[in-house]
Structure formats: structure tokens, C-alpha cells
Amino acid sequence: MRTANAFNAAAVHVVGRRRWNRRGAMVTDRYLHVRHHEDVAALTDWARDEGLPLLGIDNLPGAEPLETAELPAACVLVLGQEGPGLSDAARAACRTTLSIAQFGSTRSINAGAAAAIAMHAWVRRHAELA
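The line above is the sequence of tRNA/rRNA methyltransferase SpoU type domain-containing protein; the predicted C-alpha cells follow.
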């Protein structure tokens, strides 16, 4: 939530259980549209109706490097759950999966950090920074 607020995202979409860590949002959810989708299929239906491609963010074999990917001006960045990352259903629903270059021994960062990097990559390509 805080990251989405910092980058002025149009909305945050929560897939699955309606519960999430509100304390970590530091009240920024009051300034964002928060939509809940029962499952990935519901998110996919919504995105199709809105004409928005789903782009997965996960370090999976075969993922395209985020650093060189063409990001559409209008899209939905899909991040997985801490630990397991994108589910099989989410990966299948995404037009592509993008990876974030990492060089340490872990090759893993938390979802908030991944979201910030992905949103900043979008900003570098599309935001008017006047």
C-alpha cells in the first residue's frame, strides 16, 4: 500500500483473502482505491474488461529482465505472495513475467521492495517528471 501510494498508483488489487497487513500501510490505504478479487480468474476478468494487460513480477526461469522490458503505459503489475511468489494461476494469467536483476546469494527480495522497483521502472518510462 505504501509503495503504491508513493508512486500514485491508480489502485491496489488484493487477490484472495480480504485480510492484509493494514498496520504496514500506515493509513495510506485511505488514499488509494483498494479492490478485492476472489481469485486470479476474477482479476483476469476485470483486467480484460478494462483492457489492461497483466504483467507478472517474479524471478522465474524464462522471465524477461525488467530492466530492458517494454512496459505499456497502462498495465497491472502483478506481484506474488511473500515466499512462494506468483501462483501457477497468476503466472498463466500474465501476458509476461518480468524479473528483477539480483546478484547476491539469496536472489530474493520482499514484495514491497519488488513492487517499488517495478513501479519505478514504469515511472522511468512513462511518468512526466516536470
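Note on the example: The chain has a mean pLDDT of 88. Strands lie at 11-15, 33-37, 54-57, 64-65, 76-79, 96-99.
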